[in-house]
Predict the 3D structure of the following.
Amino acid sequence: MSEFKFVEKKSNLKISFERIAFIFFIFFIISLLFSAKILFLSYNDLPEQKIINKKENFRSSIIDREGDILAKSVRITNLGIDPKLVVDKKKTIIIFKIIIS
């Protein structure tokens, strides 16, 4: 029978304890910074309504050589509704139909 021989391979790479401790310390500091940022952002109260500033600089229409309008800029208004605050769904739908049309 053949005998099993275990040969331990030693690499020539020598890493000192100080180097490992330094790398660990750097990763530890980075993780602390990210944790602090997450905690800071989680404790900030988000505003319920975002105020959107009107932009006065308005892009003009895109016209081809013959004067036909290819693209026209239009002003839009975004509406939003919080479903938790709706009391009467049918009345709300009717009001939105009146506003949109």
